[in-house]
Amino acid sequence: MTLDMLPYLLGFLLLVIGVYAIIAKRNLIKVIVGLLVIDYATNLLLILVGYRSNTGGAPMAPILTPQLTPAQIARHAVDPLPQALILTSIVIGLSVTALVVALAIRLYDRYGTFDTGRFRNLRG
Amino acid sequence: MRGMSLIVKNTTRLVAGFIALFGAYIVLYGHVTPGGGFAGGVIIAGGLVLVVLAFGEEFSRRVISHEVVRTSESVGALAFLGVALLGYLGGAFFKNFLPLGDTGALASAGTLILSNLAIGVKVAAGLFGVFLALALFRRRGEKRLMVRETPAADEEADE
Amino acid sequence: MQNLLPFFVAVPLAGGFLMPVLGRLFASRRAAAVLPILFGAALLGLAVRLVLLPDADTPPYWMGAWDFPIGVSLVADGLSKFVLLVVAVVSFAALLFSMDYMTRYTSPGLYYGLFMLMLAGMNGVVLAGDLFNLFVFLEVAGIASYALVAFGTEADELEASFKYLVLGSLASAFVLVAIAVLYNVTGHLNLAKIAETFRASPGPSTMLGAALSESKGGLTVPVYLAAAFLLMGFALKAALVPFHAWLPDAHPSAPAPISAMLSGVLIKACGVYVLARLVFSVFAGAEVFGIILVVLGALSMVTGALLAVGQSDLKRLLAYSSISQVGYVVVAIGTGLVLLAWSPASAALGAVAALALFGGLFHLANHAVFKSLLFLVSGSIEHATGTRALERLGGLGRRMPLTAWCLRAAALAISGIPPFGGFFSKFIILLVLVQAAVLAHWAFWIVAGLALGVALVTLLYYAKVQRAVLGGAPSPATADAREVPFGMALATAALALLCLASALILHPAVKSRLVDPAVAVLTARGSAAAEEGATPPLASDAAAHTAQPDALGRLP
């Protein structure tokens, strides 16, 4: 296990924390936060996948300006494809969050509480 | 929903226009600099949310009516689909058929700028609509319990 | 025809964006259904047209005219066409049913908009040729279905939707992690390209791969990790035990046509189809995945059936029954994969594997038809009597004759009584299991025994349903039940006829057009793991391109 792997392991740790929150917490809002943490963890892992070290210098962003050629970008810059993927993933996460928060608000109106122990069906 | 204090209102008066301008810049320059339709749309929606929070619900209806918000969300999405279908003119679904221009200039990258505009409109309207649905529903739902046949409450259904 | 592939996604998307606006313009809630029904009919026509074309005439469609291997493609091979047709049929019936059933809910514009979006997502999943597009369409369909489950906004429905949403998002997160790992190891997202990469034995191309790999014919340890995450994610979407916890709450709570769509096609298009596509093509048909599928499928069969027997809510019983029947499909597909992986050893196994895949796909189509019919019938019953509880129903046999006959047809079909199609598909699966047990491995005897037992239990609880709903004296709830309106009756009657007609799939003319291409697609890929030289159909577009560095300087 080299030190290169550390970001990935931390990303997985974040994922595990999110899963723990979903499984173990009774408060609806904490479950939602767990969902958010899982989203962040997966986005983080996806970005890490795209990293490419620019030998010697600082990591280069894959922005095509008139001074750079595509070949230079291909050789030195960070991989832009995972960045496009996580943009999409962030948008999806946003929609899911909006939906789950709307559900939580309506559930609060029905039951007056966020405690899932009081809901009829939501145990486990 | 009532507005907030005088300081907030004055600050919002000064700042809201710039927020909208900045959002429009991010949308329009999406093919040159980082950003694009989604990020710019979120910024514009943020500006609108700020206006609603500072001035209250009644005033926000005068800025932009809620029906317009709903409709422009669909219009933005349909415009994006239209751009994709127009790609057939160039030969394939989603094909970039306008002239590509020079790298880094504003007028370049063909249909990307149209797509960005459409997405910017949709995301701004969509996020603002979500905010309206969540915030205004809370106010209406405060005094009643579950009744299925309430059209108003159900109209702001989970989207 | 290849130009028309994007329309499978574009038409329902347009519907999804138009309906929320148009829905408020229509005066009556029934009029809002006209446009979606037209779109549904158009999709059905397109799907039929697509199925009638041989695979050679429908090459992958490259969006934006970007080419292999970096372009986004829509692939319509035999398997996709088959599932697409099933989706189109069931969704058309559900739309027809919704016209009258949804008058009891508000906001028809939002309902049809969400329905169309779910349909667009499912079509996209089935047609997707690359991994990330599959994920995006999976999410589109998923989010639309979460919202639709909560459509009635009663407390039960909200809770069911919440549980479904949380578990579904967890599954999608797992899938995304798997995509990240796969991208890291192979450097590509195109399914055909990834399959090619695993079939050869490449060196790992990036940092993570170099740190962890021990090459086993292309499937290294990170790939197994990705496969595990993918299996977990899609097993949850397909509601296999132990990932099924969301289904018994979500499917009953949704409005009846949505339950029909969820049980009938969503768990299959987003779950079983993707599982089949992944284990056969992308992961080069390694047998371990087949074994996992057989085990999960057998667990689902048994658990679903046992839990269904004790249910008193009609729709909840149907939901557990869905888990059980999908287990049958997955067992058949898993068996097919295992036998294909072992088939170089004995020629007979190859034929049995093809039969297993045929049985699995046949049962998939059958179950889509009769489970959606069952849910639509339960919607009719609820529309007429206002209740779903089996104790309070009764005596509907005389009061609602058309619905009663539809219920009988569906129940007999799903229990596996000839001459309904359900009998043939279950029989084929049992036959294949016995043959596998004799020819390949004794463990299949256990699975065959379980399958037979579950079939008997299925017969038992559907007999119970029929007696509770149709027989006996009318109860207070059913005393003034009347037959359902025309739209609902038409939808249920059409599906009931299909239950009977699905036996015709065995007819050679229908079979060769409809199911054989799908089976050929799966067996070609599965066996390519065993024979090095075979070029599977999906990668045939790869064969046309020489190896060049892609835009990022990596060699394919």
Could you explain the architecture of this structure?
The complex is a heterotrimer of chains A (124), B (159) and C (556). Chain A has 124 residues and is mostly helical. Chain A has a single domain, classed as Helix Hairpins (Orthogonal Bundle), CATH 1.10.287.3510. Helix content of chain A is 64%, strand content 0%. In chain A, helix 1 (6-24) packs antiparallel against helix 2 (28-49). The model of chain A has no long low-confidence stretch (mean pLDDT 82). Chain B has one domain (6-155). Chain B is flat, with a radius of gyration of 19 Å. With 556 residues, chain C is mainly α. Chain C has two domains: 1-173 and 247-284, no CATH class; 287-533, no CATH class. In chain C, 71% of the residues lie in helices and 1% in strands. Classes of the chains: A mainly alpha (124), B mainly alpha (159), C mainly alpha (556). Chains in contact: A-B, A-C, B-C. Chain A binds chain C through residues 1-2, 4-5, 8, 15, 18-19, 22, 28, 31, 35, 38-39, 41-42, 45-46, 48-49, 70-71, 74-75, 79, 81-82, 85, 88-89, 92, 95-96, 99-100, 103-104, 106-107, 110-111, 119-122, 124, and chain C through 132, 136, 139, 143, 146-147, 150, 153, 155-156, 158-163, 165-166, 169-170, 172-173, 176-177, 179-181, 183-184, 189, 206-208, 211, 245, 249, 551-553.
Give the topology, please:
The complex is a heterotrimer of chains A (124), B (159) and C (556).
Chain A: H1 6-24, H2 28-49, H3 70-76, H4 81-111
Helix pairs in contact in A: 1-2, 2-4
Chain B: H1 6-28, H2 37-55, H3 57-63, H4 66-90, H5 112-141, H6 151-155
Helix pairs in contact in B: 1-2, 2-3, 2-5, 4-5
Chain C: H1 7-22, H2 34-52, E1 61-62, E2 73-74, H3 78-101, H4 108-127, H5 131-149, H6 155-186, H7 191-199, H8 207-212, H9 221-237, H10 247-253, H11 256-282, H12 287-309, H13 314-342, H14 347-385, H15 396-399, H16 401-415, H17 421-439, H18 443-470, H19 486-501, H20 508-514, H21 516-528, H22 540-543
Antiparallel strand pairs in C: 1-2
Helix pairs in contact in C: 1-2, 1-4, 2-3, 3-4, 3-11, 3-14, 3-19, 3-21, 4-5, 4-11, 5-6, 5-11, 6-9, 6-10, 9-11, 10-11, 10-13, 11-13, 11-14, 11-21, 12-13, 12-18, 13-14, 13-17, 13-18, 14-16, 14-17, 14-19, 14-21, 16-18, 16-19, 17-18
